[in-house]
Amino acid sequence: MKQSGYQTKQKKQILDYLIAHSSRHITAQELTRQLNEEGFSVGTATVYRCLEQLADQGILRKYTIDARSGSCYEYVPDPCGCREHFHLKCTCCDTLYHVTCEQLDALGAHVLEHHGFAIDQTKTVLYGVCARCRGEKS
After folding, report:
1. Fold of the 9-75 domain
2. Does residue 46 surpass a pLDDT of 70?
3. What is the DSSP string of 26-63?
């Protein structure tokens, strides 16, 4: 996806970090800390501003999970690729999982057919405890 607008050094550093860590969901505070630890001087307000701009452009996906943890962001090389699955949030380690599952798809189809309600899977999060936190093999 083509970026629009003015490209600052900090915006480039932020985007480069997110691309390099594209399998992660990261908050503005975590990103600020990581960049500063790697020697890039960037303030939290700048990070928030850049993240919002990149999300508005469709380069990042913004997840607002709950008021306690705030929003997290994910680089999306294919903006359409994250629309057809559910999200699972571990309440212990705060990991957000993307899950494609026929059973969950059937749930979405049931809710639409029997209740007339179309679930927005990009905003649907089911909460629980992941296998790793439960000490089980995944």
Report:
1. Arc Repressor Mutant, subunit A (1.10.10)
2. yes
3. B-HHHHHHHHHHTT----HHHHHHHHHHHHHTTSEEEE
d(CA 40, CA 22): 19
Give the separation between CA 49 and CA 67, rounded to whole angstroms: 19
Q: Per-residue pLDDT tens for 104-138? A: 889 989 999 999 999 887 777 788 999 999 987 54
**83 has pLDDT over 60:** no
CA dihedral 26, 53, 34, 67 (to 10 degrees): -40
Is residue 125 within 8 A of residue 116, CB to CB? The reply is no
The structural domains of the chain, with segments of one domain joined by +, span 9-75, 86-134
- The pTM for the full model equals 0.62
The architecture (CATH level 2) of 86-134 comes to 2-Layer Sandwich (3.30)
